[in-house]
């Protein structure tokens, strides 16, 4: 049984949980725990993420992470402030009255979602994903650190003044830029186990030069070792706590935004798995599907599957399924097990397989 203890350990180990709004199968931030712990009660994770120990910011894209790590991004907030200040046409320079009014609204009313702000400018512009000026203003203040995230409501970000939601120790903590970068790089290499400079830098979207400097400091401190991996063609760094298991037994459906595959070059180097998400690709041009999940079996990625939770019909729909060159027959029953686990986790009664992909026929037969 997966409980809050296991979920908290998982969050500490991963260090960051990317947020994405796509909900065709399940929202991305729920999937890494499913991959590592198996089926679990999503409401437990919801409570942890909404609790005082967690927050969100632009870490690796928008992401949840421990609130105690928020000061590690002060330098990033300062860079955003400098970027805006240097551009006369930036939103804060063009809309100082709007930002001042938003600060006053939060001070008077407390944490608010953008949809709760009553203002003539709170109207979407352009296509459906276009932001209103109110949303743009709140996001600007969020990036620069003048506001922070409060617990979400129905997945919509809630904005607050820092003193309204952050604990005193976080408000008062100041971390010099170099120290913050070392801590972030340490978290990255511990979570990855091994990686190149670009792998480690991508974890928190750091610059390569900053990552190299931090890795050298960690190497001097004995936390990482520089190593060579055949075929990689560049230096790699190994965390000293990383261990090579005698045997790897794993089976998981991976989110497109799971750290195992979110750095696409690393996925190609480690697993010979060329991966691109096709959400924004026009349907006729998609190669594999709308929201294709890599399938992890032991130390391989032998398949990819496009899933949709049809909650109204009670069906987990396999929109497409594809075998990779490393696929073996023994993978099939394990993938079927993953699909059945996913359907049960989603509360769906049936699994239906479409006709698109090299693996769909075998899956349909195995599920019948």
TrEMBL record:
Superkingdom, natural source:
Bacteria
- Alphabetical list of PANTHER family matching this protein: CYTOPLASMIC PROTEIN
Would you tell me the protein name for this molecule? Cytoplasmic protein
Q: Which organism is it from?
A: Cnuibacter physcomitrellae
């Amino acid at each position: 049984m997966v409980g809050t203890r296991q979920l908290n350990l998982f969050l500490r180990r991963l260090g960051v949980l990317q947020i994405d709004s796509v909900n065709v199968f399940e929202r991305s931030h729920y999937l890494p725990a499913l991959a590592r712990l198996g089926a679990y009660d999503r409401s437990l994770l919801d409570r942890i993420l909404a609790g005082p120990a967690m927050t969100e910011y632009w870490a690796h894209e928008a992401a949840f992470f421990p609130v105690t790590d928020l000061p590690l991004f002060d330098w990033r907030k300062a860079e955003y402030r400098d970027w805006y200040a240097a551009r006369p046409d930036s939103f804060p320079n063009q809309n100082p009255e709007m930002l001042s009014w938003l600060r006053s609204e939060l001070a008077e009313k407390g944490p608010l979602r953008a949809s709760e702000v009553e203002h003539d400018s709170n109207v979407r512009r352009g296509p459906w994903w276009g932001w209103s000026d109110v949303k743009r203003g709140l996001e600007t203040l969020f990036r620069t650190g003048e506001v922070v995230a409060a617990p979400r409501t129905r997945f919509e970000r809630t904005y607050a003044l820092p003193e309204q939601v952050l604990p005193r120790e976080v408000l008062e903590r100041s971390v010099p830029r170099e120290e913050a970068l070392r801590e972030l790089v340490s978290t990255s290499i511990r979570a990855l186990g091994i990686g190149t400079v670009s792998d480690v830098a991508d974890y928190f979207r750091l610059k390569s030069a900053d990552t190299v400097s931090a890795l050298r400091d960690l190497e001097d401190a004995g936390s990482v070792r520089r190593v060579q991996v055949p075929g990689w063609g560049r230096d790699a760094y190994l965390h000293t706590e990383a261990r090579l298991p005698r045997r790897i037994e794993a089976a998981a459906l991976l989110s497109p935004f799971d750290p195992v595959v979110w750095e696409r070059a690393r996925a190609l180097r480690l697993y010979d798995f060329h991966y691109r998400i096709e959400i924004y690709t026009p349907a006729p041009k998609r190669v594999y599907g709308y929201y294709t999940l890599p399938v992890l079996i032991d130390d391989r990625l032998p398949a990819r599957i496009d899933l949709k939770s049809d909650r109204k019909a009670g069906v987990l729909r396999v929109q497409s399924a594809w075998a990779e060159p490393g696929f073996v027959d023994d993978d099939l029953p394990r993938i079927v097990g993953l699909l059945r686990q996913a359907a049960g986790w989603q509360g769906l009664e049936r699994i239906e397989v479409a006709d698109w992909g090299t693996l769909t026929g075998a899956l349909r037969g195995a599920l019948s």
